[in-house]
Design brief:
The protein is α/β, with parallel strands linked by helices. The protein contains nine helices and nine strands. The relative contact order is 0.11.
Length: 265
């Protein structure tokens, strides 16, 4: 197992574990509910680039340390920034969030505890979200004077629509697990006695059994429905079958065996 650890000041770190086709990214700052410093957002962008460089990676799991996801950005750090520096910090957040959103691999967010503000956006940037009963999701920015940019707002609207998005910001209210499931913010809500990491690994294993070509194609096609969405790994090829995975998948079906698919981006 390859483990990469990036440290920021003495306040937080991000780890990347790569093994068996999995890239597991963990945000570590548990004393502050894994609130992210600007340096951590910058490193998260670099981690996304590193994941793509490893051809063995097939699925990405994103989680927080010690039973939490992330409360979003560190508000206390904002008090030390000028207006221009704060605007630059939000650009860094969006770049990190977009870098995970546009990974050419399936991404899964494991959410227990808070997923607020930029942490909420980061969860929505993943393809799938698995939650526990303890989650709290929302965009309580009104009391902070934060003016959300179009990318942030569009990302939420794509999931829950205009009216519900306005409601979240207007009132600052938080979404619990059941409402998150009803609104389509969660794909899976696990029982109290289930380990979210183990459950995430189970879903990831099912995904890794599928054709990488099929997974990339559906992610690419789904991206076309999103406004202002550029796909760095897109191609002009528009075909219905992959020249390797299709014949291998059909042959494996006929021979009643697991197909031997290969990742190719």
């Amino acid at each position: 197992m390859k483990v990469t650890i990036s440290r920021f000041e003495t306040e937080g770190k991000i780890t990347l574990q790569e093994s068996g086709g999995l890239a597991i990214v963990t945000m570590h700052r548990p004393k502050l509910k894994n609130a992210m410093t600007n340096g951590m957002w910058l490193e998260l962008s670099e981690v996304a680039k590193q994941i793509v460089k490893n051809p063995k990676n097939k699925v990405v799991l994103l989680k927080g340390n010690k039973g939490q996801f992330t409360a979003g950005s560190d508000i206390k750090q904002f008090s030390q920034l000028s207006i221009n520096e704060a605007n630059d910090a939000f650009k860094s957040m969006e770049e990190a969030i977009s870098s995970f959103e546009k990974l050419p691999l399936p991404t899964i967010a494991l959410i227990n505890g808070p997923a607020m503000g930029a942490g909420f956006e980061l969860a929505l940037a993943c393809d799938l979200r698995i939650g526990t009963k303890d989650i709290k999701m929302g965009m309580p920015v009104g009391r902070l004077g934060i003016t959300l940019n179009k990318q942030f707002v569009n990302r939420i609207i794509n999931f829950i629509g205009k009216s519900r998005t306005l409601d979240l910001v207007y009132t600052g209210r938080l979404i619990d697990a059941n409402e998150g499931l009803q609104w389509g913010l969660l794909n899976y809500l696990i029982a109290e006695d289930k380990d979210i990491v183990h459950y995430g690994l189970t879903i990831a294993q099912k995904i890794m059994e599928q054709s990488p070509a099929s997974l990339l194609a559906v992610k690419r096609s789904a991206a076309y429905s999103l406004p202002n969405y550029s796909i760095p790994w897109d191609s002009e090829v528009s075909k219905s079958v992959d020249p390797y995975d299709f014949p291998e998948g059909v042959q494996a079906f006929l021979e009643k065996r697991k197909p031997n698919f290969k990742r190719r981006v």
